[in-house]
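Model the whole thing, not chain by chain.
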Amino acid sequence: MKKFFSDLYKKANTGIWPIVIALAFMVVGAVSVYQSPRSLTAFLILMATPMILYFMKMDMKVKVFIGLMLIIVILPVLGIRNIFYLEVIFQMAVFAALALGLNIVIGMAGLLDLGYVAFYAVGAYTWAIFGSKQLSLLHSIPGAAPADAPFALAPQWFWLFLFLGVGLAAMMGILLGLPVLRLRGDYLAIVTLGFGEVIRVLALNLDKPINLTNGPQGITPIQRPPLPPEGILQFLRTILTPIVGHPPTDAEFYNVMFYFIALIIIGIVILVATRLEDSRIGRAWTAIREDETAAIAMGVPLVKMKLAAFAAGASFAGAMGALYAANRTFVSPETFSFQVSIGVLTMVILGGLGSIPGVIFGASAVVLLNIQILQNFSLYLSDLRQSDKIIPIINFAWKDLSNQLDPAKYQKLVFGLILILMMIFRPSGLIPAERRQRELGEDKIEEE
Amino acid sequence: MKQIAENPVYKFFLFPIGQIIVFSLGASLVLSLITVLLAYIFKFNVTDFDLVERTLLILPQVVINGLTIGFVYSTIALGYTMVYGVLEFINFSHSEIFMVGGIVGIQLMAYFEHIGVLSTMNEYLVIGLAIILAMAISGGLAVTVERVAYKPLRGAPRLVPLISAIGMSFFLQDFVRLILSLTTGEFNVILPKFGTFDEFWVIAIPAMANPLRIQIKSAIMVGVTIFMLVLLNFLVNGTKVGKAIRAVAQDRSSASLMGINVNQIISITFLIGGALGGAAGVLFALKATKLDPFSGFFPGLKAFTAAVLGGIGNLTGALLGGLVLGLLEAFSASYLGIFTNGAFGAEYKDIFAFAILIAVLIFRPSGLLGETVGQKA
């Protein structure tokens, strides 16, 4: 039986077949998502396309072409048709970028950073404070803001603040890193965790003596960067109206624009990460990760290299933070809880430490799990609760199931389980990094 | 002199108690002096009242509060430091084991209330039973956690068990929430009212304007923790098991060569640490009166800070670190607002703990009492 499948896979993996399969998945997925927008299966079929592209053998150019088709044309169009998917793909993009950033710190340099969300918060609050009315409200009490306060800056400034967010977050990374990167790995974990909480507590309490963050209520409204010129929008409207069934609104255009900004940032992260990995710095990181003492002995400037990893990871989080603040037009301290740090960590671990495709897969999988699979499961349970069904053998009526059992609220449980199970059964992740794969292969030989 | 030092009564009873008293008095005294000094410095900042006088007025009360919470931190910190001593890894889920202890204790009291015997029972017996049950369950849970999530990872790179421990911490938080909300429909557990613990012993001190008010709860907390610390000291330094624990902490492979069952000793270490955490949980619950599955996180983090502050792996250090941290927290909560004229308040006390952690790790990574340890590969 197993042989039959492996033969089948081999046959499917030659010649033109992979392209056919990938296209088939993409088309079937796209059409079924188009037809039944709430269906989870349809979306999963569509999302299987990138996996097929990644795993099966085909010409690189074809791979890239199909992949770009999917993320640049099909996903946004489906997103405009059903606004829910726009949210899904935007979150996937944001978390993929965050996970890629964290991957530089944990996966490449081997530094466990549990306060990654702090840099995200720094980026978000940077644009939130300057891109909202907050600057003119510095001396007013939270909640009692005058309605006619002016915005401090024009929306165009967002582009500058995207870079400022990067710079500030990198600077925070260096400032935090300078003292603590001399420490051993597990101390670093705790200190970064503490730092993450410090940033959150500061955001929560810096509404006095001057009202910088507006306290627990958060800052709103935050301006969004301006849309492309009206001419382009008009053109897009005329094309998209027949396809999606309604003329796209400005809100949808905004979301698509944010999705593309996130994609561009991901592109930059991937570019930087791959280039770094093969560079002198990347090799130094690997050396530090594998054996610190040996790395020092070989003349790797330890603290400097660790700082570089920390700053690189932090800077991407800063950029995503600014983007997130603009997308939501709202930031509050609760967005930046410890749970987010662990969520991003879970994505990195699930996909595979140090593996760029793995981390993107991990981020997509965890986001899907969070906002679709668990939600659907919750809906399913509440449907069962309404019905008269009973579980046969133990004679348990679904009606009696506690209302508290809402899987969508148990993300921590899921994150925890993923972390434990991955560490025990597959520490190198679902799509391991090539280098790790080689290492694990060698291990097996040694064992024999 | 040597004979006295070897005398078991002195070694296992008088010496540790003396140590605890010296530590608590010393730490209180040093911090009080610093605070009074700061009061003189910040005097210009406050014009409505005399800052020094106000500082001195509430000082004894602040010290008592600090010591009370400090002893609880010490007890939790012992769990971290023991596991670190033996396995060289941060048992992240210890804060949840502590939380489970507290919730189990409260649930037992709530059960007594439910069957209507709470008001007729001796209140100290109730607390004693709650502590014993919490110790048993937390200890068992700690051993289970070790078996399930850490044991398969022994020998893996350092970060692997640490990540597993973080996962376990998250898992336990939501798992406890799941169980609580399925059984009671509510995941906050509230301490039932009973006994006379909320009352105060009022001690008038002639030289001071205000009499000293000690809540009975605080006295119980301090008393029970001191009892447990002495017991632990005896267990670690006076028994064969303790000797084995110390041997494993020093060198695992040599200990194993000497015929010590290392796995068993590691389990016992988790059992002891977990039991201490469970007891601390009940005591903490007495003070907090309300717990939820997430309320272990911050005390756990602070207890870890305390363990690092004292020198991780060092039992005496954990005691001292816990006391210092508890006092620092009480001082910062009470005085930060007064000194800065309301600009910063008690909400920054959590930050204070982390600031201390970072400062300690920078200037004295081995902690107050720890020896410098090289990095073990």
